[in-house]
């Protein structure tokens, strides 16, 4: 069993189901997104640039997605949650996923990555 599989296996059933659903949505959102193990948590990269990661809040057990460029994002679904750069969106395992919100967040996050990509290629 690899580190990603071990991570998911250690979650409680509700969190595991939620993260597998999020994983399916994120990986299906864009062909350039792939999943990696980094800093002891599942990360999703877009064209080799970190985009978002899964985690569980240690204090209250709430699962969340952390957006790497969250400090640049304007979506009101994101919370600072005591962080400077990363903003998070929390989920409840007993509620349906807010698909429109999640897709909007992914579009916005990838938009910053494409801006960076084009900026780096300018002469």
List the helices and strands and how they pair.
Elements: H1 3-10, H2 13-29, E1 33-38, E2 41-46, E3 49-56, E4 63-67, E5 87-90, H3 99-121
Antiparallel strand pairs: 1-2, 2-3, 3-4, 4-5
SSE pattern: HHEEEEEH
Percent range of helical residues: 25-40%
Q: Separation of termini?
A: 46 Å
Shape: globular
Just give the CATH class.
Answer: Alpha Beta
Strand order of the largest sheet: 1-2-3-4-5
The total domain count is: 1
CATH topology: Aspartate Aminotransferase, domain 1
CATH architecture: Alpha-Beta Complex
How large a portion of the residues is in β-strands, by DSSP E? 15-25%
Q: Gyration radius, to the nearest Å?
A: 14 Å
Record field, number of beta strands: 5
Number of helical stretches of at least 4 residues: 3
Q: Give the structural class.
A: alpha+beta
Sheet of most strands: 5 strands, antiparallel
Average pLDDT confidence is: 87
Q: Which residues sit in consecutive blocks of at least 5 with pLDDT less than 50? A: none
